[in-house]
Amino acid sequence: MSDRICRAAALIAAAALGGCSLAPTYRPPVVAAPAAFKEAGPWLPAAPADAARPEPWWTLFGDPTLDGLERQLADANPTIAGAVGRYDAARAYLARARADLFPSVSIGSQLTRNRQSDNRPLRGSNQPDLYAADTASGAAGYELDLWGRVRNSVAAGRAEAEASADDIAAVRLSLAGELASDYIALRGADQQIALLNNTVDDYAQADALTQRRFRGGIASGVDAGRSGAQLDEARAQLSDVMAGRALIEHAIASLVGVPASSFTIAPATTSLAMPAIPAGLPSTLLERRPDVAAAERRMMAANAKIGVARAAFFPSISLGGQGGFQSTALAGLVSAPNLFWSVGPSAVLSLFGGGRRRAQVALARADWDQTTAAYRGNVLRAFQDVEDSLSQLHLIGDEAEAEQQAEIQAAQVETLSLNRYVKGAVTYLDVVTAQTTALRIHRAVIDLTTRRLQASVRLARAVGGGWRVGEAA
């Protein structure tokens, strides 16, 4: 009899260790990758890789203030703190799923004083109305994971936890890019303010000259009105840019976790360095995009959950036992006559559930379809982001070169027109036209430089957090 029990136990253990999994074979969808970026060098298709902690790509702009703000963002931003909290929750769910891989063991005790009813059914003359029941016991149970329910639950939990970690990286990357873009806009506003301050001074001198000429009968009232209107317009533009700078500074304060009322950034007109863009971007850069990695891991979780849903069609088999000591008196409780125990397997199979199990499988498959579509969308959006950023860098760069040439010529025309006006060769309308054109082009050059730097930020985000100089295909 004991040999048969041993053989049965061995067979059950072997079945538990070699239990099957009802999850489908994981096959991520194939997204057709282009042979090369349309705006840059060749594209090398590869499998998604882990999204590591983003490199400090913002240091390529060569601004210590931006570096300090980025560090402050990582430590104090509430959105990042929320993402970390979601990751901790995912880790806790994984730990709870892993607990089912191990036996459950419990111990307990109970000391009670009881009284039976005088009118109880089947009352016997030898049954006391008052009695004590003291128990000290323990129990153990273990579910045989024959169908892979527990293992697939753990696999799904692990994938979800890894996706949450990728979400943290994605949030950090997005917020770091937003901060860098806002900071670049702030410095662009500082340059605009410096330009307009100088312009207001120049226009004020020109207006004073025109007013003197008007009082001397050399200039007309039209010229005096034009010079005054031009000066007031420059002052209005200055106020508008200063108002915009204040809003940008407030946005940066919220990003770094500081109240806007107590946060300031000193103005500076130093130009940021334009990062050196590699001639070609290898596929390993795009592999580091954390949103793509998170989307793939959620597909893995959805695939494992199909196995969990399928396992509900099969019986749940558990091994369990309990034992302990029970007596009507606490004294001598732990003794051989008071021993009790029970041990043996149990099985539960649901025969009818009104379609509940089929609905759970259908729900799991629908979740797989959703995560698959989300993954494809993330990959396609990644290609688009890189192409958009590269095209903006190239086209804005060409536009900036043309504007810089126009800036040189406009400055020459402005100087010549003012000199000719002083000598009486032209009217003040020519001066106003030249000065207005020069100011517009000066501001356009600053704006294009700002937009080009921001396009570099978008490219850094598109490739998952920056690149290394010389890292080309």
TrEMBL record:
<dbReference type="InterPro" id="IPR003423">
    <property type="entry name" value="OMP_efflux"/>
</dbReference>
<dbReference type="Pfam" id="PF02321">
    <property type="entry name" value="OEP"/>
</dbReference>
<protein>
    <submittedName>
        <fullName>Efflux transporter outer membrane subunit</fullName>
    </submittedName>
</protein>
<feature type="signal peptide">
    <location>
        <begin position="1"/>
        <end position="23"/>
    </location>
</feature>
<keyword id="KW-1134">Transmembrane beta strand</keyword>
<keyword id="KW-0732">Signal</keyword>
<dbReference type="InterPro" id="IPR010131">
    <property type="entry name" value="MdtP/NodT-like"/>
</dbReference>
<keyword id="KW-0564">Palmitate</keyword>
<keyword id="KW-0472">Membrane</keyword>
<keyword id="KW-0449">Lipoprotein</keyword>
<keyword id="KW-0812">Transmembrane</keyword>
<comment type="similarity">
    <text>Belongs to the outer membrane factor (OMF) (TC 1.B.17) family.</text>
</comment>
